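[INFO] parsing input record for MORN repeat variant
[DEBUG] input buffer:
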Amino acid sequence: MIKQKVCALFTLTLFLTSALAQNPVNQLDKDGLRHGFWTKNYHKTKEKRYEGVFKHGKEIDSFKFYTLSGGKSVLSAIKVFNETDSIADVTFIASTKKVISEGKMNGKRFIGLWTFYHKNSSIKMIEENYNEDGLLEGERFVYFKNGGVAESAHYKNGELDGESKWFSEKGVLLRHTHYIVGELEGKTINYDALGDITSEGNYSNSQKKGIWKYYEDGKLNKEINHTTQEVISKKE
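[DEBUG] output buffer:
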């Protein structure tokens, strides 16, 4: 009986040793680069910080990243890498396990199309595009929970540039304006919740310039020259 126990223990030890040898963790290759499966904990804790596979120093396949919540590791992001470049498909996750946002990253830079979701929901909240430098580029949309557009804007190299619109939850246009390199420029029209014009005029370098018209109940109420701050006309 004793011999059988010793034999069984020896066999188990041999199996575990062999398994560990076949699946080493946190190993370096001959050049000192991370290779194989790696996992790291937060400093002086047993709580996981990340885990994933390296191939001669390069992240490959799926990496999981964790944040500390209440002293415990909670999955916060998944990045899926390939072997050819530094671009990864990224999903950020809330502690409720709902997806917060998803898109592509090159290192720490957002690139391409990114989608953000309403809190604890799978309904889209924002869609925006980034250039290779990680700056907003092209169209950006903000959505209400009912799916309607709340805001639409155009960006160029990280700055508002072009047409921008704001809408009510019922789809009524509230503001229509234009930007050039981050500054309000040209015609702007503001509307009330019924779609009636409340004011219209021009901006120059984000300052009101020239004659602006102001309305009440859809009718012209006053005109102001904002270049000179002179009231041109006002309904009595």
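[INFO] The radius of gyration is 29 Å.
[INFO] shutting down worker
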